Predict the structure.
Amino acid sequence: MSNLLKEQYMSAGITEEVYDFCDRIADGLKERFEKIDEVAQINQIKVLCAMQKERVSAGCFESSTGYGYDDLGRETLEAVYADVFHAESALVRPQLTCGTHALTTALSAILRPGDELLTPVGKPYDTLEGVIGIKGDDNPPGSLKEFGISYRQVDLLEDGSFDFDAIKEAINDKTKLVTIQRSKGYATRPTLSVKRIGELISFIKSIKPEVICMVDNCYGEFVETIEPTDVGADMCVGSLIKNPGGGLAPIGGYIVGKKELIDLCAYRLTAPGLGKEVGATLGVNRAFFQGFFLAPTVTAGALKGAIFAANVYEKLGYKVVPDSTESRHDIIQAVTLGSPEAVIAFCKGIQAGSPVDSHVAPEPYAMPGYHSDVIMAAGAFIQGSSIELSADGPIEPPFAAYFQGGLTWYHARFGITMSLQYMKNEGLISQL
Ligand SMILES: *Cc1c(COP(=O)(O)O)cnc(C)c1O
């Protein structure tokens, strides 16, 4: 059996040495993977029961055009999302073009001139810097800053814990909205568990109960059995070309939370007074439903891939965040490879292991919204989808590659094995 698998790997260009090394690692992860499967099962039933409760039917897969009034599928899907997140309401739309857009919509729906935005967990995701207006001379037009919305940031302490004293001090009369990013993004800080997010929200609300707590939930959905809205978050925001789209959603974002806030978001997304009533779905309903249905399993596969990668590269002496044994709260794996050559070889390997565009080689280039040149490996069915096996690496110290996704664990394993093969072929790894 395992010999057949080995032969298959070798016929795909993996050497025996690389295969054996990776196979031993995969073998050692079986118990851990059982726990991931259990979380996936719990989430699967959660999604299934929500679909049953909201009476998902064939009519929900019909499409609307034009204004999109009375779109049964859209309304039912939003009810399903609200149920799964135990929230009052949801906005799940193809018109939310990406995660950054969903977050921007939420921020600009709630904040008014004179209000202040606080992040108590350090700098937010790169693409939000221009949204907030913290890029100095590089701020694009239309940032929150331009609209008179101020910003405060409290960093995590050295050991990754919350700086409660500084957070208390930062909350003031103007503080209207607190944004908490669950995933580490491009930072090498730890990702926050839902439990820790809950503790942070409780602390913030004990100082100023009326403050709105929003969680950037990107990459975190279905990794645990609870979501931030289960622990006091007023709003939770994410992208459908990450976990909750299950690899099938071709576009989209979601915002779930308190009804009053979701209505404000809908007024910002479409127009004041129109809100959730408009927004044609143009044929995406079935993919949104089916993707959400598959999302718990797909997320589990991606998570297994991330853990496998952590174990492979840690064993070879690289710094990995999260490390090989720690608990997981998102699907991103950072591997500090230490040189531009290694980041490039790693990404080329991931690309070569993809079902789409495996014949092209990625190169570093300047990307809007990012500080330095970035190399991106993405042989995906949906452009830029990062629930599919993908990797990116900013070409700057400490030369870390960020790896995520994999619609199946088997593909994730194959792609990571290929990344190692490429590094080996380039002479960047001596001994396995
Ligand atoms: C991906 C991501 C975003 C932005 O989403 P895009 O779809 O790339 O715009 C924001 N925050 C975090 C933590 C993310 O991982």
About this structure: The radius of gyration is 22 Å. The mean pLDDT is 96. The first strand starts at residue 89 and ends at 93.
